[in-house]
Amino acid sequence: MAAERGARRLLGTSSFWLYCLLLLGRRAPGAAAARSGSAPQSPGASIRTFTPFYFLVEPVDTLSVRGSSVILNCSAYSEPSPKIEWKKDGTFLNLVSDDRRQLLPDGSLFISNVVHSKHNKPDEGYYQCVATVESLGTIISRTAKLIVAGLPRFTSQPEPSSVYAGNNAILNCEVNADLVPFVRWEQNRQPLLLDDRVIKLPSGMLVISNATEGDGGLYRCVVESGGPPKYSDEAELKVLPDPEVTSDLVFLKQPSPLVRVIGQDVVLPCVASGLPTPTIKWMKNEEALDTESSERLVLLAGGSLEISDVTEDDAGTYFCIADNGNETIEAQAELTVQAQPEFLKQPTNIYAHESMDIVFECEVTGKPTPTVKWVKNGDMVIPSDYFKIVKEHNLQVLGLVKSDEGFYQCIAENDVGNAQAGAQLIILEHAPATTGPLPSAPRDVVASLVSTRFIKLTWRTPASDPHGDNLTYSVFYTKEGIARERVENTSHPGEMQVTIQNLMPATVYIFRVMAQNKHGSGESSAPLRVETQPEVQLPGPAPNLRAYAASPTSITVTWETPVSGNGEIQNYKLYYMEKGTDKEQDVDVSSHSYTINGLKKYTEYSFRVVAYNKHGPGVSTPDVAVRTLSDVPSAAPQNLSLEVRNSKSIMIHWQPPAPATQNGQITGYKIRYRKASRKSDVTETLVSGTQLSQLIEGLDRGTEYNFRVAALTINGTGPATDWLSAETFESDLDETRVPEVPSSLHVRPLVTSIVVSWTPPENQNIVVRGYAIGYGIGSPHAQTIKVDYKQRYYTIENLDPSSHYVITLKAFNNVGEGIPLYESAVTRPHTDTSEVDLFVINAPYTPVPDPTPMMPPVGVQASILSHDTIRITWADNSLPKHQKITDSRYYTVRWKTNIPANTKYKNANATTLSYLVTGLKPNTLYEFSVMVTKGRRSSTWSMTAHGTTFELVPTSPPKDVTVVSKEGKPKTIIVNWQPPSEANGKITGYIIYYSTDVNAEIHDWVIEPVVGNRLTHQIQELTLDTPYYFKIQARNSKGMGPMSEAVQFRTPKADSSDKMPNDQASGSGGKGSRLPDLGSDYKPPMSGSNSPHGSPTSPLDSNMLLVIIVSVGVITIVVVVIIAVFCTRRTTSHQKKKRAACKSVNGSHKYKGNSKDVKPPDLWIHHERLELKPIDKSPDPNPIMTDTPIPRNSQDITPVDNSMDSNIHQRRNSYRGHESEDSMSTLAGRRGMRPKMMMPFDSQPPQQSVRNTPSTDTMPASSSQTCCTDHQDPEGATSSSYLASSQEEDSGQSLPTAHVRPSHPLKSFAVPAIPPPGPPTYDPALPSTPLLSQQALNHHIHSVKTASIGTLGRSRPPMPVVVPSAPEVQETTRMLEDSESSYEPDELTKEMAHLEGLMKDLNAITTA
């Protein structure tokens, strides 16, 4: 009580009043969310960093022979150095006591003498290198296979044969496959020299083509595998003379099916014999192979085909065709190309806390498709309830515990090989709580909804923080009897419910809830034991789901009855969705097939079917994808442009039609052109579908041509572009002389570089091939750089600081260099040492730039294809004229957006002159530039191109949806919301859906459209004491976004006149709700109770603010009543005259008054003589007083500044004043009602300060307007005291307060009469009236917050107080006329006595 009395004594000081207002605007700082993959920063917490730990060298497959030595290389990097061990066939090797095998210092395994026999093979097998760092973890290498060649065994040996001179011969020698590399041939016991005519096939077979007499002799093959050589049988080859007669054509060796790995070489054997001597040709998949011009395809001796560096494209069926002019024979074989596992996405390091869920991503490719397994610290991860393989290859770990920390490796393996990639998981300790109170345990944790596979939990705020607007919550849960706990966090502060998904049926789970504030996590609630429901008998998936395209706009889907129907199938629901979107549509089907029409052309859709029985929906089928048929393009190509190259050629550029209008794969483009003077003579040319430019040559000089382009699909030709004109040059540019001097040269020196920019020569009729830039210290001839003719700037790098450079610029062509232009510049001195240090650390060696750097790409264009895709195209002037890339150069495309400003560039490499940038944000401006790199030479970045992606429908619903009751109007509610976080374009409006049945179909809900970007809306004439549900949907130019979750609101009861209407919506989908039973200790929130961003206030602050509110309310009423009593008892004989004058001035309700029409009555001439001493006799022992003066005119009432105003508009609009009619709606129509003067009182403190500011000429006009309104509408006289706020709302700066018309300060309250004794009565609220439309547009509107009265120390909600209707017009007019008269002393005494009784009534109201 002492604190309250002290607070009341401070109310008279304006500084304390301003300080209290500032308290209301404070917001609690939001808690930063920790993200996986980055270390969350916590004050005072030391963050552990990821430790580099990886293999520098891994063992590879090795072939060896017995008795030889072998080294399996392995080296790992880490700080500290890791311990290296080896596994053979999954078992650790004990190398300490092993004489033959030892560990080398770098970690490699050395086997000194390979042992291998028929029954003892200790060294052959699979080896793995294992690296371990204590207290950090373990990683394992890829698996390497050591193969030991066995004893030589001949499966076929050479046999005696004969061959006609000039024909082909073969000699067989086949050994076990691992010994083939050790085979060689001897002729007459001498090593045989191989050449282009005599070759050895990979199988060991010897092929002799175009045999000669010297080829005759004894042949044998020799195997040398480390031991003594082993010889085959000898066979004699006889060379016979040409008989000059024909013989049958036969294959000596036919190709056989082969399997090779990408990058290997392959030989397809094919040898034929006959007379005449045959020739060999090869075909692949019925296409002839050109072995003469190809670098990778070589025809070997005898006709065998060798393919070097095999790729996937080489796979297929090969045909060997032998032809000798008389007959033709052919043989075929299949070549299968395999690929080792390769990572498309490797696991990344992750930071996490205990109880969290994480996913290590791993994406691999290979042929055959690799299998993936996961290893943690060297041990295999066995899938379980908490370690799951998701999306084929990803590892999901649920409910982390401390022991899960370590290194995880993704190991991919197929028949060809294996590979590994790893990442580190660090479990962070929760940051220590900062200084400050922590929340207590959440109260009343209950399972409000229990299903078979999910449970919905709700709870109340902790006792330590009953408001809980800035609290977040974590729900920890686990299976009963399992120590591993998982966590689910609320989505936003203040939310007090969570739905736990993916649970098991008929299983007991333990739940507990913990609250967090800005200081840290508080106490945990008591464990809650809940058992899920048993699974009901639902239908299984429908088998044999098939979909096929029936036309370009329709798809037919068929399926069969589920095998496990579990009862009669009542109907099916067919779901379908366009690929790339997340909006799924459905249709009810009673049969087993359905045709969906109205689809987009050549668009892929996915389909699934769910069967329904009496228990509900069953198991969904897997998705089936199908694309609608193609059609001719429905739009023309885009961005058609013409570039006149010379007097006889014009280059055409274009972009493909928009993706949505291509209706198929673009197979080509049709270019039509004609002379403008001869429109009937049209020439056509076709180009491929990947070509986006074409040079038209052979044109006439100085002639205008028209061009148009149309796109083609396999279905036909689409619409063409409009005709575009260009005129060839009258004559080509002159190149008989050198260019003239460039017209300007500018330099900008930096520390170690100078930026040079220039403009071309003024004479544009001379060819300029490029520019030569010379520079040096004191002389421009030290170095020279040449750049392209289109370039207008260049940066000279690697210069010395504080040095004087002379720079020269010359234009050149094929004739020579032109006149130079000189400039000098002094580089800046070194001033930033940190930059130098960083440069030294990151680039210890900086090579001197090549004196002839690459020219940057030119003509960079950004073509917008969709909401997330932009195609970048460019030209490279260093390429030949046809722009064909024949060397190893590549291009780097970089792009970024300037929102936010610190966005970093993203890069991608390309080997063509275009690149498709995907994954962009909708409706966002990006800038692009390109550079070219060839070997160690790179160009500078090109000129930037810009492009803004198309808009996309909003992908998130409107947020922070709240529903509040309008003060004094229980049948009217106000819906407030915030724009969607992912608007993806300019919001053009909203749609509000509301219904009394949350489960009703959406087309049965009532719809309220809201045009523009308004964030609030009124709905009238709702039914009392009825729960309503509200959803909001945003729209932009592309369509409607998703709906928000349903928000529940119950309208107040009609007879609950002593309670405030509900002021908080309860959300069924993620919004916090005030519990119906608040308890006797509940106190109304003092600040921001309806906003999740509000700050909690202590009980002392709440009492202090309540004292302020009550004080202002009481003093305002006292002053109003004093003035009202004075005015209503004064009349003059000029009443009619004044009324007539007022009517003549503003009879038409138009705002025409000025300072000369009517002078305002000055009620303040003797205000300093008034004494309020009788008020001190109030029975209240602690009267609430304030010295805040009443303003003199309407401009004294000043709204708060814009920053606070907009802040209040966004977060405190639950207490809006009357709005204009066009923003309100009704279910049952609008009804006319007798206007009543409403003075709503709430528990919110005033949102603006009141100060005295002199005014000049606003007052007369305001007074005049008010006068006339009273005169013409006696029934609604007091309606002028309310002001519609629609105009201020539209400007986004309206205050969430009741508004009054700018007029005389006393008339703001319509001069209420003295209330009669007895309990207060409550009248229904008045519908909104757009009075503001009658005001002059240039008149600044002021708004006043009505007085607020709260209850001290009570738990009952605030009570609205209604001041009775204003006096009749005659009394009002009399007040205006006699306001300048003074009172007699006896009259003043009577009035003060009367006020004393009035104050007793008011004190009774405030203490009730």
Automatic annotation (TrEMBL):
Protein name: Neogenin
Region of interest (Disordered), residue spans: 1041-1097, 1138-1160, 1174-1326
Range of residues in the leader sequence: 1-33
Organism for this UniProt entry: Pan troglodytes (Chimpanzee)
Polar residues: compositionally biased ranges: 1087-1097, 1191-1207, 1244-1269, 1277-1296
Superkingdom per UniProt: Eukaryota
UniProt feature, compositional bias: Basic and acidic residues: 1052-1061
GO cellular component, as recorded: plasma membrane
SMART domains (alphabetical): FN3, IG, IGc2
Skewed-composition ranges (Pro residues): 1313-1322
Keyword tags: Cell adhesion, Cell membrane, Disulfide bond, Glycoprotein, Immunoglobulin domain, Membrane, Repeat, Signal, Transmembrane, Transmembrane helix
Family annotation (InterPro entries): FN3_dom, FN3_sf, Ig-like_dom, Ig-like_dom_sf, Ig-like_fold, Ig_I-set, Ig_sub, Ig_sub2
Function of the molecule: Multi-functional cell surface receptor regulating cell adhesion in many diverse developmental processes, including neural tube and mammary gland formation, myogenesis and angiogenesis. Receptor for members of the BMP, netrin, and repulsive guidance molecule (RGM) families. Netrin-Neogenin interactions result in a chemoattractive axon guidance response and cell-cell adhesion, the interaction between NEO1/Neogenin and RGMa and RGMb induces a chemorepulsive response.
Subcellular location: Cell membrane
